[in-house]
């Protein structure tokens, strides 16, 4: 893992359904492909739906369950699911989003991305790859790879970035469970990107996005935003100050 003498805090951006809107329906396309993959293993549609939801709920990523219990090749899964989605036709460059990234004061913070995907294409399509200093993703080649919301994932991310103090972590993600897990580890500045009212797909199920908490969820200081532009007000200290 990396070592660093750079003590600037890190702003961690989730990628999917955060850097682009859920309205792009990429989660729908992904859900359909994952369901088809489960069916290709010999499961009925009902069994596939049940197992997809169970693995997503239990592990945070359906593929984690598939690799643990079904001897699935994760790269085959990636090629047939993530890799087969025509992202270039579904999302596009946003000048406003690029400006937001450009306005982050790099003398104060570093900007990294982290995702449960494998070598994501989104940063390149959105023309943000030159504004993101580092990337943490699920390494499908690693045995028993980790993913959000497992604590080991966040610890791995910090180690890769050479950061030891969790209080220096800023984090935004569309999945509240992922945000809560980071907050529980001491990531001090956590934001939930919540496009309330839109429909997304989680674990193969179509759900209306809301900010309701699961029973027993921790009481913390996580803030909800509906657009990334709101980060300018939530985290004013990380942006360049207008003269």
UniProtKB/TrEMBL annotation:
This protein's name: Pyrimidine 5-nucleotidase
Matches recorded under NCBIfam families: HAD-SF-IA-v3 (TIGR01509), Pyr-5-nucltdase (TIGR01993)
Coiled-coil spans in chain: none
Protein origin, superkingdom: Eukaryota
GO biological process: nucleotide catabolic process; pyrimidine nucleobase metabolic process
SUPFAM superfamilies linked to this entry: HAD-like (SSF56784)
GO MF annotation list: nucleotidase activity
